[in-house]
Amino acid sequence: MPHFGGGDVHGQAPSGGGDSSLMVDGPTSKRSNTTPLPPLPPPLSAARDSRDLTALMSSSWPISLKFVDVCFRVKIEDSSKQGTSLRRILSPPGPTREPAAASTQERTILHGITGVASPGEILAVLGPSGSGKSTLLNALAGRLHGSGLTGTILANGRRLGRSILRRTGFVTQDDVLYPHLTVRETLVFCALLRLPRTLMCAEKASAAEATITELGLSKCADTIIGNSFIRGVSGGERKRVCIAHEMLMSPSLLILDEPTSGLDSTAAHRLMATLEAVAQRGRTVVTSVHQPSSRVYQMFRSVLVLSEGRCLYYGKGSEALPYFESVGFSPAFPMNPADFLLDLANGTYT
Questions:
Q1: Beta strands across the sheet bearing 104-117
Q2: Nearest to residue 106, comparing CAs of 150, 72, 81, 143?
């Protein structure tokens, strides 16, 4: 059931499996009565006792990701105390007053975010810039540490341990690809470094070729990556190469930070169609999208809308507009649902 409000999310998120609720930082909740998902298999390093390439490429294990009341706080230095050393250097000679000790303030980036991402589906995280999308994705991928992160994050009812993180792929917004390598060379190089040592070099190269085919990169496989000074692949193809980096490891959970950023509407739709095909193979896909078109929005099974670190809406993408209409917020004319949700998140609804 969707949730709306400026504060924390309340209500029970749908369970993703046998929830032996292990906390990131908080009390342990009781075991639910839902049917548990099968336990995770051994870590990849222990499971690679053969050189069967087919087993490697099909080793994806369904992961249901559940997060409840996720909060993240950071400490920031008082702006009035910043630059003290520079002011001391530039001040005229003579007795100076010793500045007071710099004080710190705490800022909350995420306020109790709750949701579930299931295998075979795409969970889209929408929101304006600075709403906390990237912070949430980093938390779900196990990339945030320290006492500032609180709440419950579970994968198949388990803590985000090493066995889970090995099956998690994370695609950042900015890539670090070598501009002078071709697409094939890039992925073969990645396969040689990241795939298990039990595989022969030829088998790793075959895994790279299979990933090229899976992500529709065959036509540009021998084209260099390029950069702003060297002509290479298109923006959409470049994004697919970044996704291929993670797909080489056959992840069960794929998290992407604004993969459509900088792409035109057609390229963004093709990229999201690729991610939809990845999800339909039993993987769990969580992605943040800044400004999706109406065609792209229709691909989202579940939508989580953030506004200033708070959950504005969580539920099925097809039910977002009917829900807001039921509480008195309806668009004045037919429009892209994503644009309407972003208007609400920005507080520009009229």
A1: 104-117, 65-77, 149-155
A2: 72
CA dihedral sign, ordered 130, 269, 61, 121: positive
Q: Assign 220 to helix, strand or coil.
A: helix
Res. 105 pLDDT band, cuts 50 70 90: confident
- Show Cβ contacts of residue 102 under 8 Å, excluding neighbours closer than 6 positions: 77, 78, 81, 82, 84
In CATH, the number for domain 48-79+103-167+251-346 is: 3.40.50.300
Neighbours of 33 (CB within 10 A): 9
**pTM of the full structure:** 0.77
Q: How far is CA 117 from the centre of its chain?
A: 11
Residue in the structure block whose two tokens are 């459509």: 260
- Evaluate if residue 43 carries a pLDDT over 50: no
pLDDT, residue 271, reads 93
Domain ranges of the chain: 48-79+103-167+251-346
